Amino acid sequence: MSAADPTIPVIDLATATGDELVEALVAHSCTFLVGHGAVDRISRVLETSQAFFELPRDEKDRVRWDGDLPWQGFQPVHEGGPQAMLLERFEINLAPGGRTDAHGDPVPLDEWAGTFDQWPDRPADLRAAWVDLYAHHHELATRLTHLIAGSLDLPVEDLPAWTSGQHANMVCNHYLAQDEPPEPGRVRQRPHTDIGGFTLLWADDSPGGLEARIGPGGTWVPVSFPPGAILLQVGDLLHRWSRGRIPANDHRVVNPEHVPGRVSSDRYSIVYFQYPDRSTWVAPDEDAEAMHTEGHLIDRMAESDLQDAGVLAARLS
Questions:
Q1: Is the CB of residue 147 less than 8 Å from the CB of residue 198?
Q2: Burial class of 246 by CB neighbour count within 10 A (0 to 12, 13 to 18, 19+)
Q3: Contact assessment for residue 277 and residue 217, using Cβ atoms and an 8 Å cutoff
Q4: Alpha carbons 246 and 254: distance in angstroms, whole number
Q5: 240: closest CA among 207, 205, 285, 203?
Q6: Contact, 74 vs 142, CB < 8 A?
Q7: Minimal CA–CA distance to 131: which of 109, 116, 115?
Q8: Would you list the DSSP string of 47-76?
Q9: CA–CA separation, 155 vs 166, rounded Å?
């Protein structure tokens, strides 16, 4: 498949090689993954998340984001003013390093889940569903990192920061139904590249969805998910770690077309944002200095806060 072809490829992890994965990412900055083993886990997270978003507002506010970085908990982004993005979300961060302690011994899932202190009381099975998918994606991210690093011959000494030391946040985005056309300037998600290493994304195909800028011409392409697929998107730090060989994926979420008389629908996505260990310096491309992961994340989050009235409103309320 040529670099000019805007079609997003599909990689089967049951048979994929690192070279196949990297070829797809170099040409498209993203690729669909199947054979990943997360289908049922995603369904459980979606079901529990929808139940959470349907709760009374005062109950959701018990786990609302407190305004300090990092982002986590319940975030009613859409309430932030006339330019706020039209979504609400729930977001978790578990302790970095995965399911082993400092001695390399296994950490039970429930103990790992306890490192996050903003779990809602309801639905009762939300915590277990979210931690199960988070743990699965943690292992999948490690596998993908080894495939990419092996194909690009990246430094072996870098790998622990991206695998055993990786950190992640996981989000369910609830894009609100739009029975009336939104005000000018209000969108579901602005164009951006993700700030981390890479992103594992599942989204439904409700009208008004994800678009990605694909190929050297920068064409905006609607992203329609094949059955059972998740989307691997390259972020800023993987672009930098690859010495610029793999481009970061520019993407956005558009508003649905307004058709009089047609009932609008909600839209959901589940996203796992992977980062290397936050103390890591990420090797540069040829024209830039090394980037410190923690500093990069703080700078990009602060930049997003200034652009996003919804996040600022949550911080100041």
A1: no
A2: buried
A3: no
A4: 25
A5: 285
A6: no
A7: 109
A8: HHHHHHHTS-HHHHGGGB--SSSSP-EEE-
A9: 16
Cis peptide before 123 (omega within 30 of 0): yes
**Per-residue CA distances from 150 to 9, 18, 21, 161, 237 (Å):** 20, 7, 11, 15, 17
Per-residue pLDDT of the chain (317 residues; tens, 9 = 90+): 333 446 899 999 999 999 999 999 999 999 999 999 999 999 999 999 999 999 999 999 999 998 876 789 999 988 877 677 888 999 999 988 766 667 777 788 899 999 999 999 999 999 999 999 999 999 999 999 999 999 999 999 999 999 989 999 999 999 888 777 777 777 778 888 898 999 999 999 887 789 999 877 778 888 999 999 999 999 999 999 999 999 999 989 887 777 666 667 899 999 999 999 888 888 765 556 777 888 887 887 777 654 453 443 343 33
Give the separation between CA 106 and CA 192, rounded to whole angstroms: 37
How far, in Å, CA of 257 to CA of 178, rounded?
Answer: 9
Query: Contact at 8 Å (CB) between 74 and 171?
Result: no
Q: Kindly report the number of other CB atoms within 10 A of residue 201's CB atom.
A: 26
Map out the domains of the chain with their CATH numbers: 10-316 (2.60.120.330)
Cα–Cα nearest to 94, from 119, 125, 124, 68? 119
Tell me the C-alpha distance between 114 and 104, whole Å: 19
Query: Which residues lie closer than 8 Å to 194 by C-beta, 6 or more apart?
Result: 233, 235, 236, 248, 249, 273
**Residues 98-128: b if buried by 16+ CB within 10 A, e if exposed:** bbeeeeeeebebeebbeebebebeebeebbe
Provide CB contacts within 8 A for 299, sequence distance 6+: none
